[in-house]
Amino acid sequence: MAAAMDWLLWSLLLLCLTYETSAFYVPGVAPINFHQNDPVEIKAVKLTSSRTQLPYEYYSLPFCQPNKITYKAENLGEVLRGDRIVNTPFQVLMNSEKKCEVLCSQSNKPVTLTMQESRLVAERITEDYYVHLIADNLPVATRLELYSNRDSDDKKKEKDVQFEHGYRLGFTDVNKIYLHNHLSFILYYHREDMEEDQEHTYRVVRFEVIPQSIRLEDLKVDEKSSCTLPEGTSSSPQEIDPTKENQLYFTYSVHWEESDIKWASRWDTYLTMSDVQIHWFSIINSVVVVFFLSGILSMIIIRTLRKDIANYNKEDDIEDTMEESGWKLVHGDVFRPPQYPMILSSLLGSGIQLFCMILIVIFVAMLGMLSPSSRGALMTTACFLFMFMGVFGGFSAGRLYRTLKGHRWKKGAFCTATLYPGVVFGICFVLNCFIWGKHSSGAVPFPTMVALLCMWFGISLPLVYLGYYFGFRKQPYDNPVRTNQIPRQIPEQRWYMNRFVGILMAGILPFGAMFIELFFIFSAIWENQFYYLFGFLFLVFIILVVSCSQISIVMVYFQLCAEDYRWWWRNFLVSGGSAFYVLVYAIFYFVNKLDIVEFIPSLLYFGYTALMVLSFWLLTGTIGFYAAYMFVRKIYAAVKID
Fold first, then answer.
1. Per-residue pLDDT reduced to its tens digit, 385-420
2. I need a labelling partner for 51 at 20 to 30 A (CA). Which of 272, 340, 346, 493 fits?
């Protein structure tokens, strides 16, 4: 337990360091310096909606297009996220104001949307789609001013400023649909300190937008593609009637403001969460859970086990003491190989692979090396790390398989390399077919799918075989007692020793230690929120590892005391019990937090949730299994066996 406490203290120290330096940037992500009137390119990323969970590329809707459409070369993470970064016709110059400019206006004629295009735009607006743009790799945000004090006196009201990712495509009011056809860009720059004889340079530090809907008749357009916005609130919004053609102007304005924010801190606006305090409550809650478990564990180990071992090791009255207690009675069967040892070792090998990947990704992200300015870096790193961690997964699976008296190591290595990744690939492929049918940018293109298969069979599979070969050749785990030839009869078990009851009991404490963090992770995945508190996440992960290990040891001790030696599979399943609560929480989140009603979005949600639950079960099951295995070997090594 002292070692666990040391881990917690070091994690807390790292968390404090990370929390203070959350805007750390990797060398190589260099700032871009702009001079007066230099072009600042506005690019489009995608359209997203938390109602449909289907991203679309920007030009899937009839927006104004530049003369030449150029797509940015994307990394694996960006492709998997559905990002399709493309140039736009917005002409923005550094520190140069634009009152009102018309897009794609030929001879001052408005844009005409066909009935089919109007129907598509109206459908996207009713589905609550947001548009995501970037300027100098900084995402656009909509400012939301919330009043924290609901006092009737306006002077006492305190503004709580928050930022929404992207901007709404439009809105509905009294069964009518309106499009945001005018964008007021507000860009903030930081003036860099220069020597007297040098020209000032500027850096973009914030990118906001105020979307507006302005009717065609209220916009005055001249021959130079400039326009005049209506004054005050006298204008009416631009309605989109899906039953006919619609005419409108796409317009924008640009306003620049100087800011004290430095370039290195420009992401703080997006990453600042107003509820950081709740994370601290979560950490304190988790630490209390761990201390509670530690107390139970200490009581079992210090009082019960020492008493048991002392009794067992007395030379007199051995037969009487053996009748009194339970766990020594099964010493001749406790290390008897379970059913399906190949599948068990393969799943545990994949669990080790997942554990190594998650630990490294969270640790590297906590140090700031997976900056949000590097889009898709987190997912790309996770994919490649999972492939390369195959050597550790193969090694652990091979050694365990040999310990369990397995002989067909080649088949075992193939099972380890394909069982879990095969399930993940199969589910993702089926879901991808549905996304393809919707023509969403979230569909993984065929060349990317081939590249992933090549990574799987070209990198992961050989590395798993390599690790499995060395693991199988290594000396198996040394079990302290011999296994009897004839299996011992297992007495009838009480109701609370049922496997499902064990899952419910074992899962609630580890889940309770991390469910608050789970809410923020779900919000980041399903509601397009930013998540960057990896310092908290790393600490929660350490607490999860400790609590899973402790609860697993408690459960296996009770099982052996009940003279049930079939602990291998049971402990693996029971240790992953918190995955059941994650599934229950995911259903609760779907019903209460999301507004998904259609079949395909629901299928996507539960398909990806099933993958998350499966991965979480493998992770926590593996942690618990190895903790219990070490515990069982330790206690049977401490008693004298004739």
1. 999 999 999 999 999 999 888 888 889 999 999 999
2. 272
